[in-house]
Amino acid sequence: MQYSIGELAHRTGLTVKAVRFYSDRGLVPPSGRNTAGQRRYGDAALARLDVIRVLRDLGIDLTTIRRVIDGETTVAEVAAEHSAVVEAQIGVLRRRSAVLNAVAHRGSRPEEASLVHQRALLAEVERQCLVGDFLADALGDRPELAGIARTLTPELPAHPSPEQAEAWVELAALMRDTEFRANLRRLADGHGGGLRRDLAAEVRDAVTPAVVAGIVPKSPAAKAIVDGLGRDPGELREWLRVVNDPRRERYLELLGVINGWAAPESLAPTFDWLAEAMAA
């Protein structure tokens, strides 16, 4: 059976202009012409147009469609290839949605919104580079600190919630803070010396009960607690100055949100009490 361009358009649901376009591009060649010189098409053209319409509706480009029609690839192979692309696009759209919700929640100014978008939509490789650079600068290339590095590593999910996206925005800013990096490096440098990595736990166990009991930092009882730590006062003051950086505690809070961990225990009241007791 032979069809005119108009009949093909009617049978496929395409416009006459679209059928003529595909024909001019060689995707649907005519099988002949009538006596008036008008193009005529057979059932093969009808089948080709059905394939073209379906693939175009799925967003497949004309170059790929031509490869399918020419037998260079199959519809199944094209579908599998483009399915992976669509999944990646969905991931991007979900991250964008999370960022937009974070911007709306923050009430960000226009200039802040741009910064939020840049930081929160970093590609996976870029995020890994940022985190890797931060940890290398803050901890150094030291095998004995590998465990600590893992506990400080944020892992933003592929489909973050608005809270996780907002936490990542703030965390990215902290990781770029050179002063914060330097403070963490001081803690790392004290790891192998007289100030052991478990000093925070020792201080927590010794001082927190005093804070809860309401012991005054400038009292003799407080002095006995400080002396009981058995640390050099100068080194302890330097450690306390670094470890009591509010940015460190905020980093751990944000890390918990991103990684889905329980909220960390705040030692700020304990460190503040110890700082006041030592000043006395």
- The stretches of 5 or more residues where confidence is low (pLDDT under 50) are none
**Mean model confidence by pLDDT:** 84
| Helix run count | 15
The number of distinct β-strands equals 2
Biggest sheet: strand arrangement: 1-2
Classify the helix fraction into a percent range: 55-70%
Rg, Å, rounded = 33 Å
Largest sheet: 2 strands, antiparallel
Strand content: under 5%
Give the helices and strands as they follow along the chain. HHEEHHHHHHHHHHHHH
Shape: rod-shaped
**Termini distance?**
102 Å
Specify the structural class: mainly alpha
Structure description:
With 280 residues, the chain is mostly helical. The chain contains 15 helices and two strands. The chain has a two-stranded antiparallel sheet. Helix 9 packs antiparallel against helix 14. The longest helix is centred in the first third of the chain and has 32 residues. The chain is rod-shaped, with a radius of gyration of 33 Å. The chain starts with a helix and ends with a helix. The mean pLDDT is 84.
Task: Give a short synopsis of this structure.
This protein has 280 residues and is mainly α. Helices cover 69% and strands 1% of the residues. The chain is built from 15 helices and two strands.
